[in-house]
Amino acid sequence: MRDPFVFPYPEENKYYLFGTTFADGCGDKDPVFEVFVSQDLETWEGPYIAFEPPHGFWGVRHYWAPEVFSIDGRFFMFATFKGGIGEHRGTGILVADHPAGPYVPHSDVAVTPAEWECLDGTFYEDKDGQRWIVFCHEWTQEYEGKIKALRLTHDLKQSYGEPVDILNAAEMRWIRLFGDPRIEKKGFLTDAPFMYQAQNGDLLMLWSSYSVPNYGDRGFGGYTVAVARSKSGRIEGPWHHEDELLMDRNAGHSSLFTGLDGQTYISTHYPDTPHGTERPLFITVEELADRLRIKE
Question: What highest taxon heads this organism's lineage (predicted)?
């Protein structure tokens, strides 16, 4: 599993775990999103089917990075899909009456721009009640990967307005150029934005890319988790990009959740490579006055 996301559900004293698993299907089996269930973050039951695409659904492959949020008494899944030939990748929104599903399409198509190659959309609602999608504009199209935000209509059916720029990956001092021989391109990759409201009012964003060797405290130089900070507490920023990486351990695509024990955890996949070995990893995190810190 890559891109693990945990949805704690105190009403049932359970955790629901989602991630990238059966992303492109196999043989005559369509891709799906799966869910695992646990009461202690250690012993898991499943997988069960959380979303099976209905006939004619616009997303045909690249079922990546599902995230689930409780909104207006229902459960909304923000997830990446790739359309058919000539269509870009984007984030669509699904809905269910229970966190485990079954989910059905909510947005008619992707809520990220149709002319952009996008992935890893996440949800954030600001203190004024404005709903947002924060997402990556892919390095495969941009070269300098970006993270942007768009306003969502209150019913979560579509986005609107001008995008807000949060970061340009090429400006990070720790980042390295990423190459993918499968598509014969290089660029500065952006993955996995996740929003977190700090106790001091700052708005934090976790995100992932690849760092240069010998940058982190142990010199791993692999897949990372970085932190951006908006001291205004608002999506509009201004955004400060922290030089110290939260994780530099060949692990990434992370999110935060409050456990049933009241502790804050980071959910990440480890290791990032070699592919096929990735597993969910949950580590306790503490929030200091000016930063997040992984508890050793």
Answer: Bacteria
